[in-house]
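Case 627 in the screening queue. Each case pairs one protein sequence with one candidate compound; here the compound is zinc ion. For every case the pipeline is the same: read the inputs, emit a complex structure as tokens, and attach any notable structural observations.

Predict complex for case 627.
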Amino acid sequence: MKFSVRTLFIILSTISLFSSCSVDSDDTLSIVKQHVARVGDIHSYANLDQIRTKHLHLDLDVNFSNKTIYGVARHQMERLKDTDTAIFDIKYLDIQKVTTGKDKEKDADYVIGKNDSILGAPLMIAIDSTVKYINIYYKTTDKTEALDWLDPELTEGKKYPFLYSQGESILTRSWIPIQGSPSNRITYSADVKVPKEFLAIMSAQNPQKKNDTGMYHFEMNQPIPAYLIAIAVGNIDYKSLGSNCGVYSEPELLDACANELEDLPKMIHAAENLFGKYQWEQYDVIVLPYSFPFGGMENPRLTFANPTLITGDKSLVTVIAHELAHSWSGNLVTNASWEDFWLNEGFTVYLENRIMESIYGKDVADIHTVIEFQELQRTLEHIDLDDTRLKLNLEGRNPDDAMTDVAYIKGAYFLKTLENEVGRSKFDKFLNSYFAHFSFKTLSTEDFVNYLEKNLLKPNHVRFNVEEWIYGENIPSNCIKITSKRLEKVEKLAKDVGQGKIEKLKNYQLKDLVTQEWMSFIRKLPKDISAKTMKAIDDKLNFKNCGNSEIMCEWYIVAVKRGYTLAQPNIEKFLNKTGRMKYLEPIYESLYTSQYPGDKELALKIYQEAKKNYHPVARIGVESILK
Ligand code: BES
Ligand code: ZN
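Case 627 output:
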């Protein structure tokens, strides 16, 4: 038998005599499913077709001693249809009470549906037709996946703990009860209380120094999707890098970060010239501790960045160009569901490359594009054919599991191929109109296809295999071929050196080539290279301990494959230090599947020790490899 939510409330409150309750029933699921079908996002339980959050105010108390945030999420709702229920997403949150009203709050009945290991649970709140404000009192738990609570020894200063959040893709619901679909945009404000020694910053208007009350107020006045709400709390300082940009980090790293990111004003300028005005007023970066699981995360006004980007030679700033580019693709124009993820990332890789080209020249930009193509090819070798389509089918799946180079690189190559077909000036005009038309909106792949057809292809009488690119498998045959003379030279060098002609490296030092050239060099070393030659290369260039994480990661993967055991202590040190999933996953994978005795055990041993340094999502990722 199927019940309505109202009947469920009545039945449950009669049996339990409480106004709230958790149910393990499939009825809640079937109710929720009707909305899911109408909203088009299978990763949220929210009945966004009926009622949606317009503005969220957060009252947060950050408690480091028990690693808990005590919060009240005050939702200001907008009703689209008549309904007696508002459904929010929650995951591993401890809900204490729910009230309605602004100044005079009244307790509300609510039901928590069955927990799903990917989606969490629906929080269903009974409302009458007058309700505008819903206040959810809650605390986070030790299972909260979005939050990384770091003990002092995992920070640069080793004196104070640190906290940061990671919302994308569907983790915000594990630290804030929210309608967790990217298809809804909300404004937010927050009052956050932290211990006095700490600074709190969010993806919002931010303070630039600590005050002595430990109370901070935040406003994000532009509407954003739930996954972009973010917070960081720690012993954090700020340094300005220009009139509207700067960098936050622990004091010990601040000067190095400021030097590395010196080109930020130039990047913003280049991006505005290419894609239109920057719409978020301020652009800051926070360089987080090493456990941060990504290279960067595009939280609006405040990109979160991995400290491995701070190499001293700006060689990895492309990640910052990428996150900045999300200020247009992703943050201003957002994928409506995670099945349309390529609209966020494919566009962003394309834009990132355009920024790089305009600052560092076409040579450097092409090197990146070619390297990316190599990565895409490697990825295509081992993923399911279904996941090689741009438009994904994520039924029953965790969106994070299908977020591969396909969205990023096939997506970017699709746009590059289109650009090449219609010519840059027309394509740029189209891009600018796309960002203007969809700004502060969300769109699906189908919305994009319509817009493309109407505004670029038809007016210019261009025929293009859009459907094949988006819905088809692998890489269409008209894909643009990018080559790089500089990389070809390096590949030849790799071949010679790999055959033992080590003297060819005589005139090279690490600083003579850019990071991506060395990466290509390592990738193109012959499969039968001996451990002895590996050692000779290391003696000359010291890859195993060079401090550049991209190069070290490539080197370690080859080292494991070729039985070059001298690198093992460095691998162990590296895995203990960084929590960036892009590095952890391939290195653990190569150890775990290695043909050499002892490697598998080594992977397990290192993980036991190192996992305390990883963010919860990184642990999930590594554990799926070491299963
Ligand atoms: N938005 C992503 C990070 C992300 C994706 C987090 C999916 C959670 C789920 C970010 O912009 C990103 O792509 N980072 C890359 C940067 C690279 C492509 C330059 C990274 O971290 O490696
Ligand atoms: Zn990205």
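Case 627 observations:
- The domain at 485-625 is CATH 1.25.40.320 (Serine Threonine Protein Phosphatase 5, Tetratricopeptide repeat).
- The mean pLDDT is 95.
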